[in-house]
Amino acid sequence: MTTVTTGTTTVKGAVGVAHTRVEGRDKVTGAARYAGEIPFAELAHGWLVLSTVARGRIRSVETAPVLGMPGVLTVLHHGNAPRVETDYIGLLGNLPDPTAAVFQHDRVPHMGWPVALVVAETSEQAREAAEALVVGYDEEPHDVAFFEGHPGTYTPADVPHAQAVAEKGDLESELALSAVVVDAEYTTPEEHHSPMEPHAATARWDSGRLEVVDSNQGSTWVAEELAKLFSLDPASVRVRSEHVGGGFGSKGVRPHQVAAVMAATALQRPVRVVLTRRQMFSLVGYRSPTAQRIRLGADADGRLRALEHRSLNLTSTVHEFVEPSAGVGRVLYDADAHHTANRVVRLDVPTPTWMRAPGEAPGSFALESALDELAERCGIDPIALRARNEPETGPVSGLPFSSRNLLACFHEGARRFGWADRDPRPGLRREGRRLLGTGTAAAFFPAGAAPSTAAVTAEADGTFTVRITAADIGTGARTALTLIAADALEVAPDRVRVRIGDSDFGPAMIAGGSMGTRSWAWAVTAAAGDLREQLALGGAIPPEGITVRSDTSAAIAALAHKERHSFGAQFAEVAVDVTTGEVRVRRMLGIFAAGRIVNPLTAHSQLVGGMTWGISMALHEEAVRDQASGGHVGADLAGYHFAAHADVPHIEADWVDDPDEDDPVGIKGIGEIGIVGAAAAIANAVWHATGVRHRSLPIRPDRVLLAGTGAGTGTGARDA
Ligand code: MOS
Q1: Tell me, which fold does domain 401-447+564-720 have in CATH?
Q2: Which residue spans within 414-509 are E strands per DSSP?
């Protein structure tokens, strides 16, 4: 890598060199302000009131006593809130979830549905009054029980980027011809995003424009939907979101922004609505539980004849969301008969949504566990089994891969993890009261790009300003774009200022789908390249600078039709305590082929973060719903367990060379792939340690104890 110098020296090659976050100092000193803490004069505070029943109708909202409480300004509810428009097309062609359109009717479709907003002078007064507000309900019987075979299960229509059903070949005859068959069911529980920073928004009217200061994954996304909801000219809505403390898919258009706009309009004052951790459990989406069945049929040498993956997820009664878990096999493995199907059932629960690697995270747990079971039955090394089933082209699409370096990841990972010395037999390695084992799994995530616009200004003082409606949700996107702009402008990064998170900067891709940095980088590179050409013509820079705008719509539409993915190989070592049932992950290694890596420092953090979540998914996370009330048990970070420091061992993440030839910077995207396959690698390691196969997540101590640990038997015969 070439050297980076600072100051005014022209340099090449900031991309690929580790760089601390450009806003890091502001964040650690508290100078960086988050949406819930930016001051406004005359600010009023709204507090959401959520339903205490899981299904029914609102009979009464007793506002009078609450309106007399100290500081209370107004109470909004379905009886007095303004009507909004919900019949529109939202992000990427999807229909919007009407959950965000608050207070439009008296129906309650789930526990924790927003029924009112109490607005007061202070947050404490609003909370006090919100908790005192009496809402009467006509309750109806509810159903929140999720299980395979639930009546009403259906196959959804295909949605953009997620075909519900894909079939080729005769499944039953290939299964009948197979020497080895694995037929198993896997389940994953309801899981929550739980970003560090809760959702928060402040809305105000400023000279005829609606301004919302927010914490989101895409300010043009939120601005466009608010304009549609409130039938406003899009140019009259501005959404800003400068610093975001995590999103993971949950930070889109949510009830609090809409409620804040309603209240700001009614009161003609700035109104802030902040969600509590508990409210987030019902208001910002979550990952649906899944019930998955996989049937694999193979020849004795492990070559797949049949691959069937059927996945069921739940959704709400108000909006269809499909967790496309059955899609993983469409990328990973070919088979003569290849059947995959996503199905869904509507229950009286909140609408689930995208959560880091939607589909791939739970789907890879099932499929990559099943591959491990097949390897065991065939007596083949799990990596050799995957190599044997590498497809030439997309197994279902038939399209060429832009690049596919999965085996390079396994090769490098196996070398560094010490896989070659592994005894494949389960239940043999004992250390005191612990059984030790290792496991592996494949990972992939789609690598896409979406149209974006960017503006780059050559300032009169010799610096450059980039403006793009990107969102840095903690990934380091702002820093990555600084490096990319510096290279495209052929200047040092410290001469580049990147401004993001403001819808006035123009349309751009959201921080989502692992497509943010790539999509924005493309737009920044294009604008910077044009600007350099203009500057090369010479002439003085006027005081207002020279600005060039790019729009990548045409370039991205012209991308050749190929399967584009990042790939990876996950490795884990676990120790299972046979007396307590506790599973500890001792080490993890992930090797990824994920395009050109822009900033090795933050890329490493992003991948390790995903793998850490994989530990959490494998061993800890599980939102429990009480069937009687229809609500959660322990909907907070005390009751909802996730991996904390003591649960996380040394995790190594690294990558192989894998530039995307069709991308101006070579990027593919690393946002989500870190979690994919991680839970399967851990579950496979638990089998290797104990000889017991765990097919339901999380692998809790009670489940380990109940299933037994197979200590000393080494037969691998028992299942959990
Ligand atoms: Mo991500 S689940 O695309 O925010």
Answers
A1: Aldehyde Oxidoreductase; domain 4 (3.30.365)
A2: 429-431, 434-446, 453-458, 464-467, 496-499
